[in-house]
Amino acid sequence: MSVTSKGNKSKPVVLEVSEAEYEQELASGIEPELALKPGRHTFRRVDASRVAKPEEIEPRNVKVRITMYLDLDIVNFFKMKAAQPDAAPYQTQINNALREYIESNHPDMRQTLLNDEQFIADIARRVAALSSKAESQSRLSPNVS
Fold first, then answer.
1. Would you list the domain boundaries of the chain?
2. pTM of this prediction?
3. Which of 108, 48, 51, 98 lies closest to 78, judged by CA?
4. Tens-of-pLDDT digits for all 145 residues of the chain?
5. d(CA 102, CA 97)
6. How far apart are CA 59 and CA 95, in angstroms?
7. DSSP code of 54?
8. With left for phi above 0 and alpha for psi between -120 and 50, is residue 90 left, alpha or beta?
9. How many CA atoms lie within 13 A of 3 on its CB side?
10. At what angle do helices 72-82 and 90-105 cross, to 10 degrees?
11. End-to-end CA, the chain
């Protein structure tokens, strides 16, 4: 694998991958869709602050532009709600209504949550905070016998 870069961070980095290197990657156990295919690949360096955090690219946080047809009364209903003071835009309200429907009708939400590492980490922090609070309160309370 040969790398071409002039040391200038604004210049792209060019990576040449040979057929043999590609085959070696596959032989080492890397899945074909994750291995760089043979050929020339150009990458550009970006400021670390511009790189998306893992939670920013979770499907729940990624917005996709679509075109769809809705009944006029549905659109008017959400637009009327959006016209209220401090209301969310009507598209956001439609998205929220769809999310509420999905979450209330999702048969295996429990398993989904158990497989969600961020959810488990949040629960662990919450349990630790509550345990710490309970421990502090028990030290402050006089023992009554």
1. 2-48, 54-125
2. 0.43
3. 98
4. 665 655 556 688 899 999 999 999 999 999 988 899 999 999 888 888 888 888 888 888 888 899 999 999 999 999 999 999 999 999 999 999 998 888 887 667 777 888 889 999 999 999 998 888 777 777 766 555 5
5. 9
6. 13
7. G
8. alpha
9. 8
10. 110
11. 75
